[in-house]
Amino acid sequence: MLISISRYVAIALGILTPLAETIRRWSTWRKNPAAFFDDYIIGGFLLLGAWRVGKDVQRGRPFLAAAWGFFCGMAYVSFFGQLEDNRLGIADPAPISSGAVAAIKGVGWAIGVMCLVFSLWPESHNREK
């Protein structure tokens, strides 16, 4: 059950993360291409992990856990970097406020941590008794 939640959220965020980043940085991506394309890598890893779990839960679990681990590491840096930029008064390129961007990143990071835990949860705890 928990691995299924982690898988479905990976599919959703694997699509939404690069899409949101495209909208956020559309007019500024040439200034820092690495900051633009890292979300495409995150999305690809999440979709790969979700696909592997869909084929075989036990063999796919390490791929999904690794994808969530990568997501969490990138989201940690992004969230706290955003907070620092907000503190320094550096405007975000997004078409929404910098505070809203920070909130979205914080919620995303929390979801990532939750899904990482779900993907690592032992299978015996996932079965209904």
Explain what this protein looks like in three dimensions.
The protein is mainly alpha-helical and 129 residues long. It has one domain (2-126). The protein is 82% helix and 0% strand. The chain has five helices and no strands. The protein has helices at residues 2-25, 33-55, 57-88, 98-120, 123-126. The longest helix has 32 residues, at 57-88. The radius of gyration is 16 Å and the shape is elongated.
Spans of at least 5 consecutive residues whose pLDDT stays below 50 are none
Q: What is the H/E order?
A: HHHHH
Query: How many H/I helices?
Result: 5
Mean pLDDT: 90
Helix/sheet category: mainly alpha
Strand content: under 5%
- For the record, the count of structural domains works out to 1
Helix percent reads over 70%
* Global Rg: 16 Å
SS elements, strand count? 0
